[in-house]
Write a structure and sequence with these properties.
Number of domains: 3
Strand order of the largest sheet: 1-2
Number of strands: 4
Distance between the termini: 62 Å
Length: 170
């Protein structure tokens, strides 16, 4: 018995989780137990079919079918194409303000995650515990110096702002 979907293609699995040693060991144990449960077959092809079936059954817990991944990729691609269409429309209709707003927004859609932070010593760290400590220290410092502006400062700031501009630094 082959593992095929409706279109005659084999199912594809993502095997990233098997890089973890504990998952890999448990996967091996599960496959060997499934193989021991099977009865002996006289024909090699039947045996190979049973081995394939046992590995697919054992992998169900860890291996995600690529269908979901492909679906997410299609949705991301569609979102990106729609955003680019909006940007192009704003450019062609000479709606410069909307054009630049869309460009700015599209840049924030796909930003790479920073994997390293600098601690107070200035050294880079990638450890999750240290990253969380750096964030905790940063937020504590922000909350400690909470000087609320006076009403007069607020009125003066509002008077000085131009139309369509937000307060604060860029």
């Amino acid at each position: 018995m082959t593992n095929k979907n409706n279109y005659g293609r084999r199912k594809k699995y993502s095997i990233r989780r098997l890089k973890e040693s504990s998952v890999r060991q448990e996967f091996k144990k599960k496959i060997s137990s499934k193989l021991k449960q099977m009865s002996k077959y006289a024909f090699i092809e039947e045996e190979w079919a049973q081995i394939g079936k046992a590995s697919v059954n054992a992998s169900g817990k860890w291996l995600m079918e690529l269908k979901a991944t492909n679906k997410n990729q299609r949705k991301k691609r569609k979102l990106w194409e729609d955003t680019l269409d909006d940007i192009e429309y704003n450019f062609r209709t000479k709606e410069i303000r909307n054009f630049y707003e869309e460009v700015k927004e599209s840049r924030s859609l796909y930003s790479a995650e920073t994997t390293y932070y600098r601690n107070e010593n200035g050294t880079l760290t990638g450890d999750m515990e240290e990253k969380l400590n750096i964030w905790a220290e940063y937020l504590e410092k922000l909350l400690e110096g909470n000087d609320t502006p006076t009403e007069e400062e607020m009125k003066q700031t509002i008077r000085l702002t131009k139309n369509n501009k937000g307060g604060g630094e860029n």
